[in-house]
Design brief:
This protein is of the alpha/beta class and about 500 residues long. The chain contains 17 helices and 20 strands. The strands form four sheets. A nine-stranded mixed sheet has the order 15-14-13-12-16-10-17-20-19, with helices on both faces. The chain has a seven-stranded mixed sheet with strand order 3-4-5-7-6-8-9, sandwiched between helices. The radius of gyration is 28 Å and the shape is elongated.
């Protein structure tokens, strides 16, 4: 028979009401400083509530720019655990979760750790937690131990965490947690959790029963039940959680692209820091690094069709497949009104993906083609195609998700026509000096009128990818009831790849 240890006196400084520790109102930031750690130097903000309870938030990166640019920071809402955080206890995983959270945030360069005092033992207090430990030593699990003590299974409240996030200007987060209840409670408090990212920690003999109880009785995610993010994205599904590491990166980077639905037009271009995609001799191998090429292949795998101009095919002889990642290769669409690409080009000879060879109406091609190539006649105006006509043709064929890949002139044509929903522009840390230009269009007279959108960035090794989300900017303008449209841009040079001969 299990007995409650004698002389148990549990005095909450906070009240336990309806199973939650309730904090008084009045969360105030009282001090800010810096904290150098093994994971980098964090901004450290101290908060106080009227009860006298003290909390802290560790911040890495520029949250103000993240919010304005649409980047969603990683956030760990961490409950104080003296035994795990300070003493390194293996009875729980708290200390390792805190360490893993700081490591993940440092890796991304943007995020917050909110350290909530008064959450010992899921809110029951330090000594009560030790009494619960004693009951667990006698065979109870962590849930039944709390109940045997007459205490809630989980007495935590996250009102202070929501108030701290609001003070930091953060309303959208990716939550570093395997606890769906925590995510739901933050949502109830007005914090949008765009994804839940469980942290990988070592399961030990000392905490295996505790971790199993959290999964089986408290609904925590199991590492074995987490989805394979890339496989889900390839199926057109966006998971609501991902394991920390590569899966979390993939969900953050490509989840919104998949969520955009069956119709979206994006473009990708890699250029030097001074704006060139190749040298003056035409050498483009390679402007950007291996990480950017993998990123490009992932974009290909997530669209229906990839569009390039005839000049790109003639200069680079690309395959336009997904060799670097798992996933289907898109339909290859070649813009070639004059039918001038080499007949030995791989897009015409390599049958690993379909090719649509778009030529001007009435152009006779005296060439025997392999079965994977379809010749698509399109009306040409002054020897060039209109970008919208090309997209309409693709949509009629069920190809609504389109990647405009190159070259710089083709991407610029779609940009100038106002048809891009998103532009992935990778900048390599090299200076070419003179060569083939990247994005070019007739710009605005005033910098205040320069083209922009909702912007965020991520690192690809030494390179930096800047994502211009024009669709998000248009939606935001619409919500604000402003009569703002994408500016009409004229091509810088009338000889564009959509009509170059």
């Amino acid at each position: 028979m299990l007995l409650v240890p004698r002389q148990v006196s549990i005095d909450f400084g906070l009240c336990v009401r309806l199973g939650k520790v309730t904090e008084p109102q009045g969360v105030r930031r009282i001090v800010s400083t810096v904290l150098p750690t093994a994971h980098g130097t964090f901004q450290l903000h101290g908060y106080a509530v009227e009860s006298g309870r003290e909390h802290v938030a560790l911040v890495l990166g520029d949250l103000d720019r993240a919010g304005s640019n649409g980047r969603v920071p990683l956030v760990r809402v961490h409950s104080e655990c003296l035994t795990g955080d300070a003493f390194g206890s293996w009875r729980c995983d708290c200390g390792e979760q805190l360490e893993a959270a700081m490591r993940e945030i440092a890796r991304e360069g943007l995020g917050v750790v909110i350290y909530l005092r008064g959450h010992e033992g899921r809110g029951i207090g330090l000594h009560a937690k030790l009494h619960a430990y004693a009951l667990q030593d006698a065979g109870l699990d962590t849930v039944d131990a709390n109940l045997r003590l007459g205490l809630p299974i989980d007495a935590r409240d996250y009102g202070v965490a929501a108030a701290i996030l609001n003070d930091l200007g953060v309303q959208r987060i990716r939550l570093l947690s395997a606890n769906p209840t925590k995510s739901a409670r933050l949502g109830d408090l007005g914090i949008e959790v765009t994804a839940r990212v469980p942290l990988p920690v070592t399961e030990r003999a000392e905490n295996a029963f505790y971790l199993a109880t959290k999964r089986n009785r408290m609904g925590h995610d199991s590492a074995r039940s987490l989805p394979d993010v890339w496989s889900e994205l390839l199926q057109g599904r966006v998971p609501d959680r991902a394991a920390a590491g590569l899966d979390a990166v993939l969900l953050d980077r490509y989840g919104s692209l998949v969520a955009a639905g069956p119709t979206i037009t994006i473009a990708q271009l890699a250029q030097s820091a001074d704006g060139f995609i190749a040298s003056r001799t035409g050498d483009a191998n390679y402007v950007s690094g291996e990480e950017d090429r993998e990123h490009l292949h992932r974009l290909r795998a997530l669209v229906d069709a990839v569009v390039v101009g005839a000049q790109t095919v003639a200069a680079d002889d690309p395959q336009l497949t997904t060799r670097a990642v798992a996933g289907p290769s898109p339909v290859r669409v070649i813009i070639d009104p004059a039918g001038r690409i080499p007949r030995a080009a791989r897009v015409l000879t390599d049958g690993s993906a379909r090719t649509l060879w778009c030529v001007a109406d009435g152009l006779g091609l005296a060439t025997e083609l392999t079965p994977h190539v379809d010749v698509v006649p399109l009306p040409a105006e002054d020897g060039r195609f209109q970008p919208q006509a090309l997209l309409d043709m693709l949509l009629e064929r069920g190809l609504g998700r389109v990647l405009v890949e190159g070259g710089g002139r083709t991407v610029s044509d779609f940009l100038a026509a106002g048809l891009l929903d998103r532009l992935y522009l990778t900048t390599a840390p090299i200076l070419v000096g003179d060569g083939v230009p990247g994005v070019r269009f007739a710009g605005a007279d005033l910098l205040a009128d320069a083209l922009t959108g909702s912007v965020h960035r991520f690192s690809l090794g030494r390179d930096t990818c800047t994502v211009f989300d024009f669709a998000a900017a248009r939606q935001r303008s619409s919500r604000q009831a402003q009569d703002v449209e994408m500016p009409h841009l004229e091509p810088e040079n009338p000889e564009r790849e959509l009509g170059a001969s």
